Amino acid sequence: MDDNGSLYVVDNGKGEVRRHKKEEYQGTVVAGGNESENSLDQLSSPYYVFVDRDHSVYVSEYGNHRVMKWMKGKVPLKQNWSKICFSFIYIRFDRA
Question: Which portions of the sequence form the region Disordered (predicted)?
Answer without folding.
Answer: 18-37
